[in-house]
Amino acid sequence: MDDAFNDLAETSIFERHRGLLFSIAYRMLGSVTDAEDALQDAFIRWQRASEADVRSPKAFLVTIVSRLCINHLQSARAQRETYVGEWLPEPLVTDPGSDVSRIAQVDESVSMAVLLLLERLTPAERAVFLLGEIFDYTHAEIAAMLDLSEANCRQLLKRARQTERRAIKFPRVNLDRGILRFRGFSPTR
What we know:
Elements: H1 2-29, H2 32-48, H3 57-80, H4 100-109, H5 112-119, H6 123-134, H7 139-146, H8 150-167, E1 173-176, E2 179-182
Antiparallel strand pairs: 1-2
């Protein structure tokens, strides 16, 4: 009976943080399926962890998910290098009966542009960027989660921000016969 109570408590703690964990995994991996797989692996590791290993359940779970995503990205990056064409992240599809305001929040925070930007980062840069910029973890917390030094986390975040700035380019606008033309766009009539 005591084991059943512990299992229920562990499941309850995991479910309380599931939304945060899914957000991290989806933003890092760009795929709902891969994010769910990461959560499933994290849940198994969570159940196997001893109480002595866990000081903060939230930090422990975020650490597990972040590391699983980094490992997946390092292996997936090699697979995508052979992909023909430009890789696009999988859009997040919601149930028809879902809460509309929640869907709008998810749509806003996980836009295709952000996912494409994240794809340009290395797995470690992506993890540091998401945990620091999106989820407001400190450099010390990120360093502990990813088993890096604080200085390394700062450098990775700096590189990620530089990549972000280079990626944001506004289209050049030219006046051509009274028509606004964007570079690379040619209206057909």
